[in-house]
Amino acid sequence: MRAPFAWYGLDEAFTGPRWLMQVGATSDGVVRHGATGHGEPPSIRPDASAEDRGRFAVVVTVGAGPVHRADDGTGQLDATTASSAAWLAGSGLLAATWPALLDHALRDDWLEQQTEAAFELADDLAGSAWSALSLPVDGVPTPFHYRESEFGWVLAGSAAGEVHLGAYGRGMSAYGLGFSVIGDIRTYT
Predict the structure, then answer these.
(1) Is residue 175 part of a domain?
(2) CA–CA distance from 87 to each of 80, 92, 171, 184 (Å)?
C-alpha cells in the first residue's frame, strides 16, 4: 500500500490463485520493489528428472528511479532499470527452484555462484543470452528480454516509464502471458 508506484500482475486472462510475495523497502520504509505470485507456489525439484509440481509465474515490479543518494548518506544508489528487474527475477527463480539433492555443504556456494551469473546476465540484456519477446502490458504490446534455463524462464522490460517489470516462472509458458496494473493489491492473499 505504501509503494509510490503501481503494482503489476498477470492480466485477467489468468484465472488461478494470486498471492503477494516479498517487498523490498528502504530502512525508512519506502517501497522500492515487490513481487506477486500466480499459480501454484513454487516448490524445489527433488532432482532434474522429477515432474514439475509448481506451475507458477511471479511478476516483479520495480519502481523507476534515477541515481540518488542513499538514505543514510553513505553513498549513491544506482538508477533502477530493466536490468534491475531482470536481476531480481533471476535471483527469485534461483531461490525458488534450486536442486534439492544438492549437498547442503555446497548449496550456499552454488547459490552464490548462480546469483552472480544472474547478475552478469541481467547487466547485459542486449547480449546473446537473451532473446526478444513482445507481451501486452495493459493491452499495449511491450518489448521484453527473455531467457530460459533448466530451472525455468526469466524476462524483463519496462512499462509506461514508471516501472520496470521482471518475471520468472516454471511450468507456465511465458509466451502467453499479459501484464496489467493491479487495481487493489489487497486482493492478493
Answers:
(1) yes
(2) 11, 8, 21, 26
